[in-house]
Each structure stands twice: as C-alpha cells, then as structure tokens.
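Margin note from the TA: students keep mixing up input and output lines. Inputs are the sequences; the output is the structure of the whole complex. Example:
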Amino acid sequence: MLEWVALKIGELALRLKASLITLRGIRDFIDDYPIDEILLKAIKGEEGVYPFGELASYGAAMLGAPINRRGYPRFLTIDDLILVPPAFTPRRLEKMAELLREPVFTDVNLEDDVGGLKSSMPLVVASMGSTDIASRYSIAIAKAAAKEGIPFGIGENVHTVRGYDRRLTRGHPSFKERVMAYLTNMDKYGGVFIQQNVEDAYDEHWNKVYSDKDLEPYIDEGRVAFEIKIGQGAKPGLGGVIKMRREDAVKVREKYHFLEDPLKTDRKTVERYSAPGTYTADILRGMIRLMRTSYPRVKIWVKVGPFRDVLDVIKVAYEEGANAVIIDGKEGGTGMAPSIAMKELGYPTIVGLIKIREARLMGIDDRMSLMIAGRLFNGAHIAKSRALGASAVYAGRPFVVAAMVKGEAGVRNLIRATRVETQMIVSALGKYNIRDVSQEDVASLNKDLATALGIPYVYSREF
Amino acid sequence: MGHGNMGKVNPAVLEFETMVKDKESYVKFIEEWVKHSWRWAKENKYTTVFKIQASILRAIREYLDSQGFVEALPPIIGPVTDPGIRGAKQATIDFYGHEYKVMSSAILYKQYMAAVLGKVYFVSPNIRLEPNDSVFTGRHLVEFFQVDLEILNGTLDDAMKVAEGLFTYVAKYIKDVHGKDLEKMGRSLPDYKPPFLRYTHAEAVELVNMLGCRNPQNTEILWECEKVLSAYHDTPIFIYQYPKGSRGFYNREDPGKPGYLRDFDMLYPEGFGEAISGGEREYEPVKVIARIRESGEDPNKYRWLLEMLKDFYPLKTAGFGIGVERFTRFICGLRAVWEARPYPKVAGIGPAP
C-alpha cells in the first residue's frame, strides 16, 4: 500500500515535471533574458532608466553598482566591456561654447546615417519574419519604430506565408499591411528594409515591391532598402523552419521542402523547411551587382550570421557598394531554431564586434554601415558598439517583449528610454555627438577581449 | 565614320524629353494616349508607321531566311521565363495547379530550338511588368515583340555580325520601299556601313563619364548615360564584355577574362538607346546553377533547363534579341515606343485596350 502511494506520488511528480518541460521555451527565455530591464522601460518610458520600483523611488532608494552576476556565462559578452568616462572633457567645453551654457545629456545628438537611411539614433528594428510571434506584434512595432524614427525590417517569408497584400492567414497582417504601417507613420527619420529568401524570390518579392505604386514615393525618397540574408545568429548555416497547416502546405508544396509530402500525410500540420541559400563570394558579388542594376533606387543591406569568413563577406559587400552589413551573433533571437544549433553553431556577438573592429582597421570606411546584433538592447550596448566601429545596434526581441506587455506605447517607451540612456552615456563620456564616441571610451574587464579589440585591460597599468 | 557631333540627338527624342520634364502633364497625356489609342491609330502618320512596321518584319525575315535561319513558333507560357530583366515583374498564370509564367523573353527556349534546328529565330511576344518609372523612359512597353535568334555553336562575334547585317539590311530595305513615307515624316536615314564601332563595357563607361554622365563601373550603363552614348554616335555601336552580375544568368562568363561576360548590346545612334542585347550562353550546368543563385533563386525552379543542358552537353549557342517596337521607333524617328505600336501597354496605366 505504501509502495503504491509512493509510486503514485513519484508518477505525479514526473508528470508535473513533464508538463513544466513543455513550458521550457518561455521559461528559459524569462530566466536568461534581461526581461526585467526591458519590461521596466516598456512600462515607464524614460523613467525606466533608473532602477526605481514603486517603493524605492527618488530620494528613498539606496543604490550602487552590483558586483554579482546571475549564473556564470559560458562565453564573453559585451557586458565584459565597460565605458570609461574622463574627468577632463574638452568636447564639453566646445559644446558649452556653442550653447553658451553648461551642456546636459539631452544636448547629445544621436542621429546618423544607418545603411543609407537616416535614423534618429543608431538603433534598428531587426527584420523579423512570418512566425506567429513576430507577425502578431509586427504592426505595433512598425508604428512605434516609424514614430520614433528608427529603421524597421521585414523578414523573409512574410509575403509567401502571410500574403503580399491580401491576408493569407487569419489574424496575421500581410506584407503590405506591415510595410505601410511603418511607412505611413514615418516622419523625417527612418526607412524600411526588406528581406527576400529563396522562396520569396520564387514569388518575385523584390520585383513586386519595386514596382508597387504605394511604395514608389518612399523608394524615390530613398527610404527603402533590400536586405540579403546570409544566415542568422541563432542557426548559422541552417534555413528557416515553420509549421504549416496541411491545406496551406499543399498550396506551396512546389516551393518548399517538406519532410513529409503534404499530399500524402494524414497529420494536420507539417514542418516546412526553407533552404539556407547557397553563397560563394562570386554569387554574393553577382547578386549585389544584379540588385544595383535592377533596383537602382533602393539601398542594399547584407545580414550575415556568425560565420568564420565574415570578413570576406564584408569585403565583397564593400567592393560592390552595398550600404550595410549586419553581423548577427550566436545570441541573436529567432522564432525557431534547433537547440543544438543555438548552443553549438557560430560565435558570440562580442566576436562579431571584434570582426567589425578588424574590418574598420582593414579600411572599410563609413561609406558602408556595419551593424551588430545578438542580445543587445540598451544604451550601453549602443555606445560600446559605436566605440568599436559598429554603426548601429540591430535588435529584435526587446521590441517584441515591449509590444507584448504594452503594445505600441510599450515599444515607443523602450526606444525613448534607450535613447535617453544612450544620450546620458555619451554625455558622460564628455561628448555630444554619437559620431565622436570612439575606442578611447571603452575598456575591458577581460584580458583576452582587451587584446582582441586592442583596448586597455582595466586591471592593469596600461589602463 | 562613327563619331558625330557631341549631343546630336534626334528631334523626336528631344521632344520626348521636353514632354517628360513636366511629369504630371506627361502622365496625363500618356493616360489619354493609351486609354483612347484608337483615336490616334487612324491618323495618317500612324497608319504609315504600322505599314513600315510590317515591312520591317518582312525585311527581317528575308534577311534571316537568306542567312539560313529557320523561323520557329515561340512559346507563350512556361514554368520559368527570363529572370534577367531589370527590376520588371513576370506575369503569372495558374496552369492546372502549377504556377506558370508568361514569357518575358524566349531565351531559354531559343537554346532548346537551336539544339533542334541549328540556326533559329522567333518573332516572339513578351510581357514584362516594368517598374512604374519606366513610363518616363520612352523605351519600355509592358507588352512588346522581339525577334529572338540563336545560333548553335555560334560565338559572340557571329552574333554581332548577324546584328550588323540585319540592321543594315532592314534600314536599306525601308529606305528603298518607304523612302517617300520617311520623307513625309521628316525622317532621314543615312547609308549605314558595317562594321560598327565596338566598345568594351569599361571603355563605354569611361567614355560616358568623359561625356559628363556619371556611371559607376561594374553596373549596367544607366538609361541616362546610354542615351548620351547613343547621341554621341551617328551609326549604331556595340558595347561588349559586360561585367558579370549585371546580366541574366544565361550570359556566359569569358573563360579567358574571369569576371566578364561574352555578351553585347547594340545601341541605336541619335539618342534612341538600346537596340539589341545578346551574347554567348553559359552551358556548364554547375556554372549556370551558381549564376541562378545570384538572383537569389532556387535552381530547382529551372530544373528542365538544367536537365536539358546536361542532355545536350555541351550546348554552346549564341544569339540576340531585337525589340520590334524600338526598331520601328528608330526607323520612323518617333518620340517613344508608345507611338510604335497599336494598343500600347505602358507600366501602371490601365485599364486600356
């Protein structure tokens, strides 16, 4: 009898555990992603830059730099770098001469050219695709990004899966709805960049966009870019995966690879795999040339995963006159990727930053933007990236989290908070234009990183 | 021979340029032109144009037949068509559950028929859903015809020689048969004597840059610069050896000069711009596959072509296409291609006959 009870309890415990495992995706995300920080900003806006809650507010809180970190990271991140403000600030003096008063952080100018698009700050909303989550919040994010004047991306498969102008799936906006939600809310800053994968190419996505009358005025104004995707951080070398309803799958069975023939299976959903797309230096070169010929009025961006030969990609892109290359590090977000891919494939974001620094030293000048992506979300990340040669931070998940908690307003709050944060940091560095932030403003807590980036190691005499 | 005075642009081309300066009123004009085309089609000028057009086609057939070419029926639809067209969309139809394309050019089928017949040509209807801004070029119609020819085991030089011969024959034929008509339209054509000047793409870019039109290296000659180049000459000219990547995947890379293609364009003089596009075709399946990837596409889409290239290996051909409306525009000295065709279809303007 006692054994029976013990057995039942054991079974119950296992079942409970089993049911919790099915929640894993979201639990891992909440545990491991700086969700508190983003939520606070999404809810409170600019005020969210201070670590105040409802109880400990200004004057009542006791604050100080935290020295512990949760868990122990497997690899180095951008948080292993710190920003090092100086006491003597000749640039602040210059700014004071210009303003005829003491400058403050709101005087910091963050606007810059990002991949041929004018942006209110060096932050870009990554091109997110057709997955449920990206699709569901895309309109709120589009509007917020447009109103805040930062470039906004539309990922692959949106056209093919969700429809070009007519909705193909209930509850999900079509490509055209997404792009117009952005463009019609844009003021003097911003622009949209659009991906096309192998399957979208089948539907001539870029051709359709390029001759779409509603988009034409924006193309003429130079507010549109096309983004070539050569892999992504979370699964470099692998193509996209999505679950489709069988009847939808039947319609597109000639364009995609299915593990099971949708005509023959009796399952309700089938997994659809898209090809990663084959590239060589010659293919990329040819592709950029072809695009410059076919679409002379759009900018050309190239997004690349954490590949070992990323410098070769940058070189080809630069030589052919592309406007931007984005390196997406292994921490980069995704709607769906095999666990083993996220764990084992590709290098961390910080290595992408090392590559960018190398590219700049190699002579890739600012005619081409170099952006960094992968778990970057705050003003410090922007300042550090800029200091090391990146033109902007390219982020996706923070905007989705903000949209989930507070819709369009949440996304705008997050962007504003990040803007204020960046302005504070830049002004602390004694500078008043984001373009002036440079390598002298960063140092490393880690020796290897210091060597790789050619910046001082903090715990040493050279610093 | 060759260089005329700089900027010797035909008055009809100049008139067109003046028209498009005021974009708004031009668009209004062109809408009326297209939507009520029967009203002008009956005018003397245009009945003459259509008769000359018929003579141009007759002359083309006479010449090609005399050179041993066989006319074959062109395809109208197929699972794939020519993707090597600057930013224009393809028209799609549902073919019993498969997506088929209306031919944007018969290029892939020319290779097929050259393998079958040796020297072959089509008088081929094409559909290209051109970008909206093509309204302002005067050189783009959505629905047009081209004479598309292909030579089995032909070379770049063979194709260029046929192009010269064809152009010269037709121009002389029209002068002989329609001399009075041309005179009435105020058009005079000189006696053209081949061979025509040949520039490499790099030389052409250098020349247009010298003439004050900024054209980046390694890209197609921009429409604007092409016109400058065309206006600089009073006989047709050739531009060959385009950099790889600026053209469709079927253009063959020069094995002796990697990064450059064995292809060419022929431009009309007097600012009329591009007449002919052609060259040798890539026939190594692996190379064709890599080139298809440049347009971001899955080679699987072109499976029949790839299988055919393997079956007929090595399928070496060369050829070119010449647009009938552009040819007519040039011969008659018209403002734009929308005068060189009944019921013209112009990008973005419809519905119209």
